[in-house]
Amino acid sequence: MRTVLTVLHEISGIYQLPNSEDVVLLSSEDRSVRVFLTTARTRYELHLRRLKALGTVQAQVFVGPGESRELAPYRQRFDEAFARVQLKQNDLRHGVLMVTEVSGEISDQVLDHLQDYGDFCARLKVFDPENLQTLAERATRIAFAGLALSLGESITDTLAWRGNIAIAYEPGSQRPTYSLAINASLSHTSRMQLTSEAATNAAEFASHISDADELETIVRLLSLSAKANTEPMTAFLAAWSALEIFVQEVFKSDCEPLAYDLISQSVPETALFVAKTREVMSNKYNIRDKFSLVACMLAGTEAVADIEIFKTIKKRRDDLAHAMKGDVRELPAERARALLRKYLKLHLERLRATK
Asked: CA-CA distance, 268 to 271, in Å (whole number)?
């Protein structure tokens, strides 16, 4: 029996897709994991409305009808609840959705003890979505990072969760069975129209990130920072941590060795001195020094301005960490994410060019 967990997020920074068609950002070879952008929100509205109504039906089972009345049949209670359901603006707004679909298989024995509503069925925890959820979270992080790198630096990169849909499909008829969970619940924004070039770049970045284990933590923190429901302090600290880890990683694995090699090659007579300097200076560079070198090697003439931005962000981080100074609502999380996106993109483009 095929199961599908669908996770819906809204991307704040995009209002239109190329030719209004779905844009696939990530897909496994067997298509069991897919992440794509779509404006076809109506595909999911029926499922979300049904799930809200089913939640009401389940709540009635646990709470009871009150006043010693008997509960009406499932279908009648569902129809009454469904008629009252209206999706709030935040449930599924008129924007671009990032849809993550993860498929699996379970035994057909789960067809027992279902609540049969005719055109669909439902039951508490038809399958445990935890494993699928783990795959979905990783795929979403990777696809979001790829997309974020393809957007303009001034574009808002907020990712807002809009709902989960867990369905098992009956063999043959493909009638859906909703897997219910007891605890289920369903600033200024700069946006852009996603171009075909940006969509292609997003998929390529996502593919590269998917294969780069060293970027896993960076991508996870970037995604956490960008989620709309993340507290301002957490959003900023996650963005700063991702930026700091990125700088440390790229400095150590790429920029520092290359810088010393360039000096040695340009003046061969200094090779021994350079080697000794490298040994002495090991672990002596602070994070500002490291970012300065990374910026110079990746961004060229733009490095000077970016170094000043980095210093400003770091000062806000230090004020927060050491003295809890400043209004947490004004922490530069977006600015930190924008700087990280810029240099992560430059780093990936450089790697792609050297292959």
From this structure: 5
**What range defines the domain where residue 8 resides?**
2-211
Cα 183 to Cα 119: distance, rounded to the nearest angstrom: 25
Mean pLDDT, the chain, whole residue set: 82
Sign of torsion over alpha carbons 89, 93, 97, 99: positive
The reported pLDDT for the residue numbered 186 is: 36
The full DSSP string for 16-78 is: E-GGG--EEEEE-TTSSEEEEEES-THHHHHHHHHHHHHHHHHHHHHH--STTPPPPPHHHHH
Range scoring the smallest mean pLDDT among 21-30, 185-194, 211-220, 322-331: 185-194
Which of 190, 211, 232 is the last residue in one of the domains?
211
Residues 196 and 295 in one domain: no
> Same domain for 189 and 249?
no
Q: What angle do CA 121, 125, 126 make, to 5 degrees?
A: 50
Quickly count helices (H) and strands (E) in the chain. Answer: 11, 10
Cα–Cα distance, 313 to 333 (Å, whole number): 9
Could you give the strand order of the β-sheet that contains 115-116, starting from the edge strand earlier in sequence? 23-27, 33-38, 96-105, 2-11, 159-169, 176-180, 121-124, 115-116
Residues 25, 173: one domain?
yes
pTM, entire model: 0.74
On the question of pLDDT at 65 being above 60, the answer is: no
Domain boundary among 211, 240, 263: 211
> What's the number of domains the chain is made of?
2
- Do 191 and 207 share a structural domain? yes
Q: Is 4 left (phi over 0), alpha (psi -120 to 50) or beta?
A: beta
The DSSP result for 295-328, as a single string, is HHHHHGGGHHHHHHHHHHHHHHHHHHHHH--S-G
Distance CA 129, CA 135 (A): 10
